[in-house]
Specification:
Blueprint lengths: L1 H42 L12 H12 L5 H11 L4 H14 L6 H13 L13 E6 L6 H14 L4 E6 L6 H12 L2 E3 L7 H14 L4 E6 L7 H16 L4 E9 L5 H13 L3 E5 L9 H9 L3 E5 L7 E3 L2 H9 L2
Parallel strand pairs: 1-4, 1-5, 2-3, 2-4, 5-6, 6-7
Antiparallel strand pairs: 7-8
Helix pairs in contact: 2-3, 3-4, 4-5, 4-11, 5-12, 6-7, 8-9, 9-10, 10-11
């Protein structure tokens, strides 16, 4: 009899063990199913982040749908534009003009786009004179895409049938001459360069004489990418301009290469480079992905500097004349 009781106990315990094992296995399986989903959810950008950010046009429309009849709607519209890198002064000016035109039933995002387009309407395009040579001075901070932009401009001019010479006056940055030489070869342009550390003004002078001797149509002068806060370097840039002018050269364009992702620091850059070298136009680079380039609205409003060219990629063909309508529609997402 004790043996039978013992067997029953063993059977009961075995059944309990099987039940516990089945329960644990089920829980473990369920956790394995849930965990990857949870991980994927954590990786998904939050709404408002770069990848999940709602378009500006949608935010403007949503604002007016919620608060269209309230006085604060205009202040909130200014805030939306400031967050799009338009800047407080330009945003206030834009909102003032939109407010004057707005009527119930209007699409506020389209009105914003129309006012941005009107700001740039009639601005001059890239000016290349008929002199031998016409001089284009290119300035900008490190990392803005300055040397790449020079190569693209040279390619565009050569494709139009002009002969182009490049001056490697960026004698400060390591490999700057080599990089410009690569772009000169790709674009079909001549290059004038000296050793690293040479005087940038001397390089520019020699390049002007060489361009004249070769009867080049255009001389594009590269300059050292520099921080706009470094006064000695900005003085050096002004010196390059003076050397070219004293040698009888006519600078038709001084182009500031501005990164579309720069934000409001771009206004300070534009002001400082204009004081040093007389900026006549902007080349807006890296205008792709989530970058909208709202900073050029602030620069145009504050300093009156037009945008001449837009770069949207790394390819030699990825440079085109600035189109106010296309830019405004992209900025306002309409």
């Amino acid at each position: 009899m004790p043996t039978a009781v013992g067997l029953e106990i063993v059977v009961v315990l075995a059944l309990l063990a099987l039940l516990v094992a089945a329960f644990v296995a089920a829980r473990w399986s369920r956790r394995r199913e849930i965990r990857p989903t949870a991980r994927r959810a954590r990786r998904r950008p939050a709404r408002g982040g770069p990848a999940g950010r709602e378009a500006l046009g949608g935010r403007i429309r949503d604002l007016f749908a919620r608060r269209g009849g309230e006085p604060d709607v205009w202040r909130e519209l200014e805030d939306l534009l400031v967050r799009a890198d338009v800047g407080p002064v330009a945003a206030a000016s834009l909102v003032g003009r939109v407010r004057e035109r707005f009527a119930p039933g209007d699409d506020p995002a389209r009105l914003v786009a129309a006012e941005v387009e009107a700001l740039f309407a009639g601005d001059p395009r890239l000016r290349v004179g008929e002199g031998h040579p016409s001089i284009v001075l290119v300035v900008g901070v490190n990392g803005s895409g300055k040397t790449t932009t020079i190569g693209k401009i040279a390619h565009r001019l050569v494709r139009e049938g002009r002969t182009v010479c490049l001056a490697a006056s960026d004698t400060f940055r390591a490999a700057a001459v080599e990089q410009l030489a690569t772009w000169a070869e790709r674009a079909g342009a001549d290059l004038v360069a000296q050793q690293r550390g040479a005087d940038p003004g001397a390089v520019a002078f020699d390049a002007l004489q060489a361009a004249r001797a070769r009867r080049a149509d255009v001389l594009i002068v590269d300059t050292a990418g520099r921080l706009h806060t470094r006064t000695p370097l900005m003085d050096e840039l002004a010196k390059v301009r003076r050397v070219l002018e004293k040698a009888g050269g006519t600078i038709d364009e001084t182009l500031l290469v501005l990164d579309a992702t720069t934000g409001q620091n771009g206004i300070v850059q534009a002001r400082t480079f204009t004081e040093a070298a007389g900026v006549s136009g902007i080349v807006l680079t890296k205008l792709d992905g989530t970058a909208r380039g709202g900073v050029v609205v602030a620069v145009r409003e504050a300093l009156g500097i037009p945008v001449k060219l837009v770069g949207s990629g790394e390819g030699i063909e990825d440079l085109e004349p600035f189109d106010p309508e296309r830019f405004a529609r992209a900025l306002a997402d309409v």
